[in-house]
Amino acid sequence: MVARILLGAALLSLAAPAYAESWDFVLVNKTGKSIKTIETSAAGQAAWTAEQLDEDVENGPVRPGVSHTVHFDKTGCALDVRLTFSDGSQGVFTNFNVCDYAFGEFAFKGEQPVVKGS
């Protein structure tokens, strides 16, 4: 009888869904452009997921020089961030370490997207 209970408990634990951890970081927009959408992916995976928007907050474009809190499901420490700008262009900022940095300054160095953590 005890063996059946333990077996049942083990099977139930396998059937339980795995939930991602909800995290956030502060994006500092130093791109010189207004950001229309923000998407994240585990680094190198290109499995883009839109940021999780707060329902009680008005979410408009993130203007240059403005900070914005990005909510996402953590899939690992290294994160790629894809920004779509109001002019329709995009930039992919790679390998932002969300475990080490709570703030990221997103900018362009020439045409190259760069992110600096702090």
UniProtKB/TrEMBL annotation:
Keywords: Signal. Residues 1-20 form the signal peptide. This is Uncharacterized protein. It comes from Tsuneonella deserti.
